[in-house]
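Forum: Protein Structure Q&A
Topic: Joint prediction for protein chains with partners

I've read a bunch of threads here and the consensus seems to be that you should model interacting components together rather than docking separate models afterwards. I'd like to see that in practice. Below is the full input, 532 residues plus whatever partners are listed. Could one of the regulars post the assembled result?
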Amino acid sequence: MVDGIVVATLEGVIRFANPAAEQLFGRSSHELVGTQIGFPAVVGERAEIEVVHAGGTPVSAELRVADIDWEGEPARLVMLRDITLRKRAEEHAAQLEHERIGRAEAEAASHAKSDFLAMMSHELRTPLNAVIGYSELLDLDIAGPLNDDQRRHISRIRECGRHLLSLVNEVLDLAKIEAGRLTLQMGVGRLGTISDAAVSLVQASADARGITLITRSPSAVPLFFQGDEDRTRQILINLLNNALKFTPVGGTVSIECGQAAMAPADARVTVDGSWVFVRVSDTGIGIPADQIPHIFEPFTQVARGHTRPRDGSGLGLTISRRLARMMHGDLTVRSEPGKGSVFTLFLPEAGGATSALPSDPQDGASRLQGVAEVGEILIREAGQLLAAFVARIRAEDLADAAMRLRYSQLADHIATYIGDVGTVLVAVEEARGQPSGLLADGTEIQRLLAERHGAQRARLGWTSDDLHREWQLLDEEIERTLRRCANGVPPQTIEEALTIVRRFNRQAAELSRRALMRTARELGHRRKASTA
Ligand code: ADP
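Posted by a regular:
Agreed with the consensus. Here's the joint model:
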């Protein structure tokens, strides 16, 4: 029989044990007979017992008891079934279920956290943009002339606002990455172009800190990578800013692009093939070896004893590495305290052997990008857009005067205006058609800017035709920028955003035209009065 059978007296003394029972107890029938059965044997009940062998693993058995006559005496027949395997399987399943629930709870918590962060960041970002926008208006003397103290205070408000905004943007980026909602615009980019663009953005800060910024390009052949150009530039700007931040005056920061047949051992890459890299090296304070594994963790900043903590959120490297990995590359570091640090961004080379990349895991999950995304692009690209816009005004020599005007005279209001239009696009999506104070702030800023702009153009002697042409050029440049940069955004969303932007521009153009006419009239009166 497979089941163990034991016969015991009513007092529990074993009279008989079959071979299966011998095996279950790990003792011979000889040893068992005459000993106490050791567990209560109640008729009619099914029970589970644990049998511990001498030196062996415990065995689980299910037992059933029945009354019988044994050699003319009333006795108990105990049937024992080995259920160890079944028990183990059950325990294993319970353990798996427990872990599954734990994981699901952790995921839900992480999603909730990311949703919360994303929502909060939006809620913080929009009013922050208004703080910055209004301080720019004040700085432009729109509410009347400022004295030096006021101007200094306004500039502090604006600086702090911008700093806070960059922190909020980082939190938002990380929340999006963690929630799997950050979509990349994968394409082919030229490494040198991106690296030059990043360098030009930090050059002023290097000069101000007395640090030499060197670009090395050992290879004359242009290098191409596969990835998202904007995000790659974001990573490089972050690396360069860190290098500048942690390098003392007189130090050197260098950036170098190159090619590698293989990714180094410390890079965690998931595809084979050839690579391109950008390396940012500095002669700064370096990072202690025990801290290196932690600098890529969120909110980590290396403690620096007596020195003042540097600006920053401790998120830059976390975001940079995650972005690098989303692009199938990696970000690595080598550093020596007192000597400096070397951060290297590896990306798959375009046209190289890595061309068979796994599709972006985000693709499937990518949802319709809203106009907020377009607004963010507009804010991010504002600098380049402005440069192109000014170049066109100069090329047409608008009002026969554009060539003589300073860049700031041509671009001042428009820079703030573009930033504000971007912000309003973000707010439009968030407000989901509801009236919103943030939207009202945005349009109020646009109105003030437009009127100011018209008045300033009048003083520069522009006609309303010149002004009309200027707004046309801005329309065109905004459209060009969005079509060029928003290639991951569905076309209908771009169209929708462009419709909103054109409406803003039309309103602003009309307001500025009226201001121009008004100012021109006033100037005419004054001139007449002074000649009279
Ligand atoms: P943040 O710069 O905002 O503090 P990061 O994630 O960019 O955040 O960097 C995390 C930390 O790593 C920094 O606070 C600093 O301690 C260290 N670190 C980063 N780059 C460098 C560098 N080039 N030299 C020395 N330390 C660095």
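The mean pLDDT is 83.
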